[in-house]
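User: I'm writing a short report section on ligand binding and want a predicted complex to refer to. Could you take this sequence and iron/sulfur cluster and write out the structure as tokens? A short remark afterwards would be nice.
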Amino acid sequence: MRISYSGLDSYKNCPLKYRFQYIDRIREPKSREQVFGTIVHSVLRYIHTPGPVQPSLDAALNQFSQIWNSDLYDDEIAERTAFSQGVKIISDYYAKNDPNEFTIVDLESRFAIEIGDDATGRHIIAGTIDRIDATPDGFEIIDYKTARKMPSQEKVDNDLQLSIYLRAFLARYPKETEHLDRITVSLYYLRHGVKLSSTRTREQLDNLDAQFLEVISHIEAAEFEPTLTALCDYCGFQRLCPFFKHKFLEEKTIEDDDAQTAIEEVLILRDKMKSDKSHFAELQEKLLSYMDEKQVDRVFGSSGIVGKSVRRTWKYDENTLKEILEPLDKWDEIRKINGTALKGILPVLPVSARQAIDAAKVPDKESVSLTIKKTRDLDELDETVVVEK
Ligand code: SF4
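Assistant: Sure. The structure tokens for the complex follow:
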């Protein structure tokens, strides 16, 4: 199959959203954030398009004003805030980068590379690399981000998007495969003015196919379960999504009113439980300090007694345990297949074995929980376990 990197990414975030976008081909209106990102990307392309002299900051800001789209904003304050964020991003970018100092190899470079083989099936992954620079040491592949949240360095070191971009670069410049240490891959977080850079090893690139093939195998098996995440708040397919069915119910009944009241009460109780919990912790601290000061383990009040007990849990050092049990031929008997160990070996197994393991999964325990979220606070997603079975 032919799939774009953004399609693969979309599937990983929510398979159902992928189905709506790429199989049912339902158009999702672009969010303000997406349009904002497109405008900033376009200004950066303008700044770095090779010419006799690169545009000044004033010229870049002028370009930004010209392509700014005010139709997306029905509220003047929101528009002014977004516009000044754009101005700040571009001004900060100039403060840290002189566009005349870069040797641009390509901008918005399109690629289509093949992954897989006869056994796994061959597939094409397509995409666009924001920028490729020649550096004094080698090359740098850069992807701009306008996201508000920055990832950890560890995530950047394992970022699949950067790895596939590097593979695409190497497909174009195969001789550079010998100099992987001289090719930097970077995510430039424009709102923070921070560029997070990394490199890739041969091994990382060799393992890349397996990771993409796994996602493709799920798509080919038509697995399109919805995945509820913080991104759902910005999803344009809520009306079609089973997780949001109630939000768009047209008929309201008495039970709906009861449920509404229950939600209000649960939210109030949740807040109270939070504050009770922290007050309880403060009181515990106070009593423990008092016990330490008096060097006692129990304190007697007029209405009760509070005692201190110490509970310890133990674990075994696996290597020592192995050294003891292996000569006794007992090691294999006590080893269990646990999720963490299995996850570690999965990437090195052939696709067919991974599919067989996936099919062998059986439900273990089932618990029911309620996720409670205040609608006015989009960033907060608190989970409270209310019912368990
Ligand atoms: S609302 Fe969330 S779960 Fe539903 S389709 Fe969109 S991203 Fe997926």
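A remark for your report: The radius of gyration is 28 Å. Confidence is low (pLDDT under 50) at residues 377-389.
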